[in-house]
């Protein structure tokens, strides 16, 4: 039996980025419903350049990802952006075209984790959508509401961490899973 799961993920989390890249590489993304959440809601728009302690934390996290997932291309960002608007744009894209939304979401991840772009910048979100063939992509109140619902669902799970996978049978896994553990989790 192949399990389906919800993935609670934040676009500014390097472990989420690496897990999502692994899911795509393993062709497991069709078994996952992505649910964007903010694990740090107080981050600014536009993204602020990281202070010393945040910079050191980002460095540690990126080095951890490079160590446990050397196949993932990842760079050191200058800071951490607020991701609420990006999450809302991904939701809007999912309503228009789920496959294009997957490309949009992964491109947003790469824009931040590889190219260092500020994905809290609404102009960047709109331009990227246009470049991918969604020139009229706009966030509506339904997209905003769904982002709020996902945030509450994740908070109620009580893990306090991203990425969090919740399988349809209730099994929960937290963090960047190895390829072997992902296969076990999805029973493949």
Describe the structure.
By secondary structure, the chain is of the alpha+beta class. The chain is built from seven helices and four strands; from the N terminus they run βαβαααααββα. α1 (14-25) crosses α4 (98-113) and α3 (84-96) crosses α6. The chain is globular. It starts with a strand and ends with a helix.
Architecture blueprint of SSEs:
Layout: E1 5-9, H1 14-25, E2 32-36, H2 52-68, H3 84-96, H4 98-113, H5 122-131, H6 141-157, E3 164-167, E4 172-174, H7 179-185
Parallel strand pairs: 1-2
Antiparallel strand pairs: 1-3, 3-4
Radius of gyration: 16 Å
Q: Which residues sit in consecutive blocks of at least 5 with pLDDT less than 50?
A: none
* Structural class by sheet pairing and helices: alpha+beta
Q: Biggest sheet: strands, sense, closure? A: 4 strands, mixed
Overall geometric form: globular
Amount of beta strand = 5-15%
State the total count of DSSP E strands.
4
**What is the helix/strand order?**
EHEHHHHHEEH
Q: Give the % helix.
A: 40-55%
Termini distance? 8 Å
In DSSP terms (H or I, runs of 4 or more residues), the helix count works out at 7
What is the quaternary state of this protein?
single chain
Average pLDDT, all residues:
97
Query: What order do the strands of the largest sheet run in, or round the barrel if closed?
Result: 2-1-3-4
Question: Any key phrases for this structure?
Answer:
alpha+beta, 188 residues, 7 helices, 4-stranded mixed β-sheet, 49% helix
